[in-house]
Amino acid sequence: MDASTQQRELLEGDRVAPGGTNVRKLSVVTVAYNSADVLPGLLDSLRAGLEGIEEYEVIVVDNDSHDQSVDLARAHPIGARVIATGRNGGYSAGINAATATIGRSSDLLVLNPDIRLEPGSIRRLYAGLNSACVGVAVPQVRGEDGAIAKSIRREPSIATAWSEALLGGRLSSRLGLGEMVGNSSLYRAGGRIEWATGAILLVTASAREAIGDWDDSFFLYSEEVDYLQRVRAAGLDVLYVPESQAVHIGGDYHSSDFLTALMTTNRIKYYRRHHGAFASAVFQSGIVAGEAIRLAVGSGRRAALSAALGL
What is the reported pTM? Predict the structure, then answer.
């Protein structure tokens, strides 16, 4: 079954609006873990961000928070449905807990708790879904200072790992050699991409059906790399839509040695799943070299190096 036929079948159960047009269902999912400081801001932004979306539900999955995340979500006027998992199984497990409760014809909007939607942003994101070949759409992400975040990425490779090791992330990005895409014209004009950071992703119902669950063996980090690789492998496109915008506060891993090490571990783990032993060893050695060269930068580099050497 091709993607176009599959998408039509998935949407057959949608409510029909006056005039005979299908109303797409949207499930908005955020996974919280001790997110009380940022979750209310996300929920506050949803009504304006979802302006023009006729039928949606909001789901907050709580991964056993020890703060007021659950109480805040339940009390918020947006009317979120709260799923308390009772454990911290990670980001992918949280998403899967939500998708297990929603219909197969529902599109999925995945949001970090520290995302803030701009007014009308999701309607504009939907405008990018003008082809059955598009499985995932992502918006332009901005920082709190208004600067465009370099959120687009290339598939991890030996070339990207060693370019970043020898040149540094910023220079390799500017030269078009690193994993981070620095091409300013793409951030302005949009288009097909390989993957983007997973803070905000709009996944079509047909893509959900084709790809299945998120891989919860990635506790945190690289889960979106894996998911979007499977989207592309299914013959669907990942589309960057700059007309749609969101603000991402983010950046926890920069101040956490544990999260920096986890990110490094999962980068290597992901690469090993798709490549042979020799290529994986060369990739890993590039990560090790880059962290070793920059050991003086801080404890995060030491944690990353230790993680890379320990695999």
Answer: 0.89
